[in-house]
Amino acid sequence: MEFDVLKIVFYLSVILFSTKVLGMLTRKIGLPQVAGMVIAGLLIGPAIFSQIPIGFNGIVNPSVIEMDVLKTFSQIGVILILFSSGLETDLKDLKTSGFASSMIALAGVVLPLGMGTLTAALFMGGIPETFADTNKLMNALFVGAILTATSVGITVETLRELGKLNTKLGTTILSSAIIDDVIGIIVLSLISSLGGGSNPVVTLLKAAGFFVFSIGLGIVLRIVFKWISKKYPHKRRTSIFALAVAFLYAYCAEEFFGIAAITGAYMAGVMLSGLSDTKYVDKKVLVNGYMIFSPIFFAYIGISADFSNFKPSDIWFALAFVFVGIIAKIIGCGGVAKIVKFNVNDSVAVGCGMIARGEVALAVYGAASWLILYDNKGHLVGIDPLFATIMLIITTSVLCPILLKVMLKDSKVEPNISVNAEDYVAVEAAEKHD
Q1: Full-prediction pTM beyond 0.85?
Q2: Rounded average pLDDT per 10-residue block, the chain, 434 residues
Q3: Which residues have CB under 8 Å from 190's CB, separation 6+?
Q4: Helix (H, G, I), strand (E, B) or coil at 387
Q5: 219 CB contacts (<8 Å, ≥6 apart)?
Q6: What is the DSSP letter of 291?
Q7: Phi and psi for 115 in degrees, rounded to 5?
Q8: Distance CA 214, CA 254 (A)
Q9: Which residues pair with 167 in a beta bridge?
Q10: Which residues pair with 415 in a beta bridge?
Q11: 421 dihedral zone (left: phi>0; alpha: psi -120 to 50; beta)
């Protein structure tokens, strides 16, 4: 079956225009642009219009093969998003972030994953039934994995506004958020591998093998890129070689180790982080990603959404999902913060600073949505958390700064500039240049 190239060109035009317009509108009202981009995909695609008997299935109504082309663009987009996130992860800061940040991050993954999985199980026939069915369990774990993500951008802006960005509290929150995403992405890869029917022991061995491969090759690559950056500083060739490494890591991760491609892209970024030309490379990645591929990824999520199985109970699940996503971070991260000697007020602030979700949550959804469970007739029998994820992003984006301001309005500033927090918000900074 062939497809019309001009149709794809038209679809890309509509996608890029609509995602930018909706992204700018959502940002104007204080929400992340990524939420607007997904909503744009819902409005231009068949997800909503196909449910209304008006003979119109959306401006972007691709055939199966055209959908595959858009999916290819979207997969490149999510690889660039995670590669950029890896580049923004400073290895030195991770090494010096300390025991406290690591434990807070671990709690910020384990508790949301567990509570999210149990919540999904309750809506899929109950916990015993879900845990007895491997496919349902994988669907439930996938839902829980989405809740592990943390978006650092909104938290950074709020802490900067309050003058707490470079305090002990601020650096703890930011370091915890970064480590949180590292652990969360690893967990996603393990769930994806298990969902494909792999043996748990084999999956863990493959995961270990992948990280040995990534670090081993990464050490060599860092030497090469240090030489390139020194001999040819700020040259486009450096960014091109870096992108080649990102795609190679993504390919090897999934093809040879059964690990999600986005994990490979993230590790590629980590291996090239902290070099003299890293910020230059990241800037080039952001330009390519956020001008073309990343908007297509976010719009594709909306375009490919299927609401034909949507039920009133899905709204109740979304509300439960949002509540659990918020409370699990506050209890998990805030509880550990109290254990490691933060006072009660600052401990709650740590938890509140970890509740925001953004592009990583959508990247997790896009990477493992194949774990959503359907029967032989194509009817949804599991949980599709897309609607709930969008609600979570919007709700936490509004609540995070409000809660932080309430908790920190009377706290004292304790300077601690061990972490250059501004380096972690390159995406958000780039989005301001329209």
Answers
A1: no
A2: 84 96 89 86 90 82 92 92 83 70 93 97 94 93 92 73 77 83 84 78 86 94 94 91 96 88 89 92 87 91 83 89 96 94 91 87 86 84 90 88 84 47 45 50
A3: 203, 204, 207
A4: helix
A5: none
A6: I
A7: -70, -35
A8: 13
A9: 415
A10: 167
A11: alpha
